[in-house]
Amino acid sequence: MLGGVETRSVSPVFVGRADELAVLTDALTRAAGREPQAMLIGGEAGVGKTRLTEEFLCEADRRGAVVAVGGCVEIGAEGLPFAPFSTALRTLHRLLPEELAAAAAGQEDELARILPELGDTPRGPHDEESTARLFELTARMLERLAADRTVVLVLEDLHWADTSTRHLLSYLFRTLGSGRLVVVATYRADDVHRRHPLRPLLAELDRLRTVRRIELSRFNRAEVRRQLAGILAAQPDEDFVDSVFDRSDGNAFFVEELVASKESGCRTGLTESLRDLLLVRVEVLPDETQRLVRIVAEGGSTVEYPLLRAVAGLTEDELIEALRAAVGANILLASADGDGYRFRHSLVREAVSDDLLPGERARVNRRYAEAMEADGSLVRAEERVIRLASFWYHANDPAKALPAVLAASVAARRRHAYSEQLRLLERAMDLWDSAPESVREALRPADYTEVYPPCGCDPATTALRRIDLLAEATVAARYGGERDRALKITKMALRLLEDDHDPLRAAWFWTERSRLIAGLGRGDGWEEIAKAQDLVRGLPPSQVHAEVLVRAASWGMLHNPGPDNLAAAERAVEYARMVGAEETELNARITVGALRADSGDGEGGLAEMRAVVERTTQLGLTMLAGRAHINLTSQLESLGRSQEAVELAEQGAELVRRSRLLDSEAWVCGNMAESLYSLGRWDEATEAARRTLLVGQSAAPRGCASARLAYLALARGELAEAAHQLAAAHTHYGTHETQPQHRIPLRRLSIGLAAAEGRIADVRAETAAAAAYGFPLGQHRYAWPLLLAAATAEADARGLPAAEAGREAALAVLRTAARSLATPVPVWAAHAEYLRAELLRAEARDTLTDWTAVEQAVRPLERPYLLARACHRLAEALLAAGDREPAALLLREAYATAERIGSRMLREDLALLAQRARLPLTDADSAATPPAPETDPVEALGLTSRERDVLRLVAAGSTNRKIAEELFISPKTASVHVSNILAKLGVAGRGEAAALAHRLRLFAGPAPVSPRPEVARPGV
Is the separation of the CB atoms in 548 and 507 below 8 Å? Predict the structure, then answer.
């Protein structure tokens, strides 16, 4: 191998770019302070991106940073998945072997998909979270590696990046939160046209405040002169400077090429084409060297020396001489690891490659492919399959290319590079008809496919079919986030199956379409499931049949709860057992357990799901174990066993977090937030909900998290935040959301907001809509809180003039809806008792006995907020009955709870009631407050006498003009009074002020109407 070779055409002087270099070195300084840095360097080809990066890396090295560089590989549509990351991580593995091993500890199998040196790449698991899981592990590994040292990661030529590389880079830029890490990515700006796949990523990164972007411009004339002086080691002639500047237009690489052409005596000083300028220096090389350069141009970004020796057909001495001539002419360079050769600039390689004749290109690619087939050690094992597929494809040999491309698709899948797998499968389908039938007949599904379950055939002996490739492509597109593409593939497959009677295969594709349509928010997916059911009806048991049944049962559980779903799920379990599909069976058993619990058999359902948790954990089926935890914690909450739900959720979150199942973790954390809310641990509930938003990849868990944050804000009295989070939940769920478990809580939130803002008409509209839609089987857990919120709003609005019309009908709706709901466990029986009392309060018929029954029903539950509210109402009833001592105890208990959990609204209600009754709420109040007559609750709010009159009229629904007329003041003065009242009450609007006044019973009777004084008529 050759050592360092003098490169005289490269200026020893670093010209310009002082500001750009300062930005990069500033990033080094910031990173040293444990603030990760993300940099993008863009510019046209040859403008000097590499030279700027080299200067920056020299400075990083001087400061003691660990530097790793990886370049994207231009190898065609299929790409090399994660190529720049693999190269850079390989460097880090070489420089910091022990540190990297420690950073990757426990996750070597997964991380081997990017860095094969860590171990063998596992075959699975594969799911829609696989890629996100791998990205998360990579990010955390880099953070740990950069915890105690500055690490600089440079990814070059991002314009050639494969899809997986782009997605990983985006993930890193968005999620790196700690460590002394600098990530720099370079790209060729002139290649990024409007439809280039890098363009959306650049737009996304531009919106991140953590990413800094440097755009390099061309040199001006003075900078070209400095560059020429550095290259020539003397001041250039001004005419020559003008000539070079005009010809190069300030492009640094072309300046170097023009100087090199002049020094070598080429005629390129007169050529009009810059492409010719690049080629002419190749054409003056010896013939053997020219042929070698053309071979290297087709070998990829870098060609390994052993591979080049096998392909060139030269003796080793002849090869060394040809290489020495190419390196001496500064056409080729030895690679950084000293194991191969690359072009000094990609522009030269592109020009040489483009100059090859079609037959010549095919012949060179064939020779590369044949050499690699003959000796698998010529290139790295992880690159061999994909590079071989590229060489055979460009050799125009379908018989060899088809199996090679299919093998490459399997390799991409194993690395979770699903976008690359999809492109390779599409290439295989393009080659399908061109490949000889004998080649196609020799292909087996067992070797190249795994998503479609074997049904009535042996995948090891049955020939591979085009429909198999469509099935693989469907799932690859879905896993890669290309759901629209996946939907189009299923449409193609179903059209192909119209002429081929294969109901199981068609049912499988319809099930996939159901999942995709629901995921895209273009429907609920039931129509597609129904078609799949029709296709498998009457067929013998099979795995596809079982999967269709469990999909139908799961859909019904979420969208249309009823007894038919349990029957379908139990049949799915039976069919899966019959055909030995244990994974499908376990999935069906989760659904069976949840449906049994919804149907009233709580203990039986919990036992079934616990058994699944144990078995899936034993088999290492973490995805299914996660689903079991999600459903189990949800059912425990439904049964009022919130503390158990939190404990199990903590275990489940840890389980799925270790495997980086991000959506599963989001669901478990969302369920944990709900149970923590019930337990009154609101700060922890907020943290769990925010964790859900942070890690959730899909819309549904994020929607649940926003809804939970809205519940918390509403209970705390933060109405603007509650409205914001409710709107966010609606956005996450989209317009096609029909699941009762999502729809009913959103209506409950809308009712709570409308009630707090005094919009009783909206409360009634939301309640009527919810009741009209109905509360399906198992949805009582969401329906009881909704009805209770509506009944409380009606009771609080009693006496409000705007609420009188329609009150009777609204209460009838609530009573009718309540009669249809189950109370299978004490928590919902307590809600029913509470609802009954609120409905009586709304009619002024509630008694001390009613509220005593509510308090007794709620007290044994783990529901501190609900208990505090019940204590509030019971204390109010006791005070009305003149029983002050027990009322004081209840108020103090409820106030302490409101203080602890952070419910401002409840705390204020309790404080006002205590002030009216002259009862102390704390020991300090008790010592400082002697018994005294009951004080005016309006004065306790800090309102003046005039503001009292204005608030009374606001509560009656009067406008500013009406208030002005009643109180003989100007409308402007009335507006000022209203603004002062809103500020003192801490509310946002008139409706909210009116609702507060009625909720606190500040005015017992109607607003007074002041008599108008008689005014003398003016004289005439």
Answer: yes
Calpha distance 113→572 (Å, rounded): 34
Token reading at 648: 């199990």
Which amino acid, residue 838? E
What pLDDT does 589 receive?
96
Its pTM stands at 0.76
Q: How far apart are the C-alpha atoms of 187 and 210, rounded to whole Å?
A: 18
- What are the residues facing 341 on neighbouring strands? 303, 334
846: Cα separation from own chain's centroid: 49
User: How confident is the model over 973-1015, as pLDDT tens digits?
Assistant: 878 788 887 877 777 777 777 777 766 666 654 333 333 333 3
Q: With 80 as the cut, is the pLDDT of residue 11 above it?
A: no
**Dist. CA 585–CA 572, nearest whole Å:** 7
Cβ distance 45 to 191 under 8 Å? yes
Specify the pairing of strand 37-43 against strand 211-215: parallel
Write out 517-531 in H/E/C secondary structure: HHHHCCCCCHHHHHH
Q: Using the CB atoms, write b or e for 276-286: b if 16+ within 10 Å.
A: ebbbbbbeebe
Question: What are the tens digits of pLDDT across the range 519-575?
Answer: 887 888 999 999 999 999 999 999 999 999 999 999 988 888 878 899 999 999 999
Residues 354-372, mean pLDDT to the nearest whole number: 92
- Residue owning tokens 């008792």: 833
**Residues 158 and 200 sit within 8 Å (Cβ to Cβ):** no
- The secondary structure of residue 38, as a DSSP letter, is E
Tokens 């799961």 belong to which residue? 554
The model's confidence at residue 605, banded by pLDDT at 50, 70 and 90, is very high
Which is more confidently placed, 688 or 4?
A: 688
**Residue 213 zone, left/alpha/beta (φ > 0; ψ -120 to 50; rest):** beta
| Burial label, 982 (beta-carbon count in 10 A; 0-12, 13-18, 19+) | middle
Instruction: Please give the Cα distance from 323 to 343 (Å, whole number).
Output: 11
DSSP string, 884-936: HHHHHHHHHHHHHHHHHHT-HHHHHHHHHHHHHHT--SSHHHHHH----PPPP
CB 243 within 8 A of CB 271: no
